[in-house]
Amino acid sequence: MVPLTACQIRSPTGYRTLGEVNKEKKKNEQKERERRKGGKQKTMANSTWHYTTSLIILTTILVNSACLTVGCYSRIFSFGDSLTDTGNYLQMFGNESGNSAARLPYGETYFHRPTGRCSDGRLILDFIAQEFGLPFVPPYLGGKSREFFRHGANFAVAGATAMNHSIFKKMGVPVNTRGGFLDVQVEWFKKLLSMLCPKSDCREIMENALFLVGEMGANDYGTLFTAKVPFTEIKEIVSGVVSTIASAIKNLINLGAKTLVIPGLFPLGCCPAFLTHFQTKRVEDYDSTTGCLMWLNEFSEYHDQLLSVELDKLRNLYRNVSIVYANYYRPYISIMQSPTQHGIKETVVACCGGGGPYNFASSQDCGDDGSRLCQEPSEYVSWDGRHLTDAVYKIMAKSVISNLYFESHFTMSCSMRQQLKASY
């Protein structure tokens, strides 16, 4: 697939207005009320069937109780940027933050309202929580009580970098400081631990929790690319980004973490934002099968290679800890290469954005007046040019969860429980 030309921009009739989105929201609310009303009118026969089925399931669980004594994860703690943020940026700056995720159409597909998530619905983190029967991981800045964080906390902030902002300032590169950086999130976690277990060593919490550290690095590189730093210098920075991530992992392990998932980068060359920024007439710069920028995808792979090497070193250092690499690149590229197998029709054009060949414009965010909104987000890979749709995050999450089951000893005890869940 070659890059789209200006004459291939779809007509406005293929998009929705924000007024239509609000009408859809009201329809969804009415359907939910009707569904709840219908649920109250179940017959006695149905009730009896469910009662009998519940007894069978309960008996099965009791018989297999020896396999379930360890149980699944009791908490999830996550760190990262806008790919993982469930509302921290919104908590920091409110609805007037300028963050488009604070308004519709963000959140329209699953939550039917904006939640601070940079998607039309759920994120990979949300699907992981659902897999292990946990509530959605709340933003750290959204609560103050131990009960609020009973099942974990999310420290990710949209716009966060891996590296300390002082490094960018030394390079003379302007950086958006609002999102903070990874070390800040680790410090927040330490503060939370002191509240969760003030009179104990927190061992039980740490050993039974799942840690998701990342994705991190995309904002570091995006900042440098925007500042037009020479590519050779940006490539030299990758080792610094990776070592920063490794330092955070060590910090968490020293605090007692036993199971950590560390994601790599998405293929940056497939993102409408980068495709727009680096648009060129050189056909040879693009992958003919995906329409992605090859040199930028090779850069993503380079980051992932260095990260994988660093994780191997950490595994040798901490042999009693499960350090699971989550390859975001491979499933993303798989979708780009065979979109129809996943029900995808648009791979490099954003569902919601400011127009142009990729429906992305840095001067006009998704949800701004005049922005274009697609009819069916589930048919798109990209939601707003920088982030993915609920449908694609779901596909990505399946790959991460599969890897987690395969590589983590602790998760093996969850396998039987997931099979039981699937039976009812």
Automatic annotation (TrEMBL):
Gene3D superfamilies: SGNH hydrolase (3.40.50.1110)
Keyword Signal: yes
Coiled coil segments of this chain: none
Pfam families associated with the record: Lipase_GDSL
GO molecular function annotations of the record: hydrolase activity, acting on ester bonds
Presence of the UniProt keyword Transcription in the record: no
Region (Disordered) residue spans: 23-44
UniProt KW keywords: Glycoprotein, Hydrolase, Signal
Biased composition (Basic and acidic residues): 23-35
Recorded family membership: Belongs to the 'GDSL' lipolytic enzyme family.
The protein, known as: Uncharacterized protein
Organism: Rhynchospora breviuscula
